[in-house]
Design brief:
The complex is a heterodimer of chains A (about 80) and B (about 80). Chain A has about 80 residues and is of the alpha+beta class. Helices cover about 55% and strands about 25% of the residues of chain A. In chain B, strand 2 and strand 3 form a beta hairpin. The radius of gyration of chain B is 17 Å and the shape is elongated. The chains are: A alpha+beta (about 80), B alpha+beta (about 80).
Chain lengths: ~80, ~80
């Protein structure tokens, strides 16, 4: 009986909640890979799911990621011209 | 342009995840994304609600010796 209560307490302890931003709807895998790699290098990547092309960054890291995406897309557009 | 959605990343056991999915099923106003078996993205304002409901559900599943004693004497 005591073991069972301990188990539930352990399960509650095992829940982790972290504020962040979910990045999704990438155009293709290249875009996902570039941006998630950037987030990883910055050290702000909390979670990644390449199969679904989704990742979660810290709250603080999100702005830099958005700026990176803008720069990346600009570069890709100019190289296409 | 990829989409960026503000939320709270929850990391937990599959059993706890199933409970959160269950809590969400009545109104669908908690979960933003079911990422995998052990990860969920939930609405920032719903963290406290989830915590309270989980605590209640887990307490209901905990053995209560007084209840058992009452049942035993009732026989």
């Amino acid at each position: 009986v005591v073991d069972q209560i301990k188990l539930w307490q352990l399960e509650m302890d095992r829940i982790r909640a972290t504020d962040g931003y979910l990045f999704s709807e990438f155009k293709n895998f290249d875009e996902y890979k570039d941006v998630s790699t950037y987030a990883k290098e910055l050290g702000v990547l909390l979670y990644e799911n390449p199969g679904k092309r989704k990742f979660v960054s810290t709250l603080a890291g999100s702005q830099q990621i958005v700026e990176f995406v803008k720069r990346r897309n600009q570069k890709h557009r100019s190289s296409a011209n | 342009m990829p989409k960026a959605t503000r939320g709270v990343l929850i990391e937990c056991d599959p059993s706890i995840k199933a409970l959160i999915v269950n809590i969400d099923s009545s109104q669908h106003n908690i979960i933003l994304d079911e990422l995998d078996d052990t990860h969920l993205m939930i609405h920032p304002s719903m963290v406290e609600v989830v915590k309270q409901k989980l605590n209640k559900m887990l307490a209901e599943n905990t053995y209560n010796p007084n209840e058992e004693a009452a049942k035993a004497t009732g026989k």
